[in-house]
Amino acid sequence: MLEDREALFRALIEDHGTHPRHAQAVEPADARADGHNPLCGDRVALTLRFSADAPDTIAACGCRARGCAICTASASLLAGLVEGRTRTQAVDLFHAFRDACVSGEPLAAMPGLPPEDRDVLEALTIIHASPLRVKCVTLPWHTLNAALTGTVEAAHDLKTSAAREAPA
């Protein structure tokens, strides 16, 4: 089982790290945040647009990452995973993913998370075995949390700017 997760992890990093999806800013954006890991130089710029019909639902997410392949792949996967989710679901997903990456425990149960998406996130959580790389995989997720909640994250030497409203 672990060998399968490691193989999936390598495949995801190679594919999404080399060919990131959703790597452009969403304009117009309803929320945005920037993240930076000063220890390694990874940077993330995240933009969100909410649905006109369901203002609490993420209609589009753009997540541009500059840095290592792990950070870039995580940003690419995050953007695809949060589209169509509510603000609350995305924040819950952030907490579950971050906690699994830090603790090494299995990903918490997430209602409505399709098995293939759960498998992807579970594969990324094997980064727990490399504590210095946890910051690489979680930086985009901390940035998402900042965009959704307006909070500034400083844990784990990561710096994210508070969410800011897009210009009208």
From TrEMBL:
Organism: Caenispirillum bisanense
GO biological processes: iron-sulfur cluster assembly
Superkingdom of the source species: Bacteria
Domain NIF system FeS cluster assembly NifU N-terminal: 13-93
Matches recorded under Pfam families: NifU_N (PF01592)
UniProt-recorded Gene Ontology molecular function terms: iron ion binding; iron-sulfur cluster binding
InterPro entries in the cross-refs: NIF_FeS_clus_asmbl_NifU_N
Name of the featured protein: Nitrogen fixation protein NifU
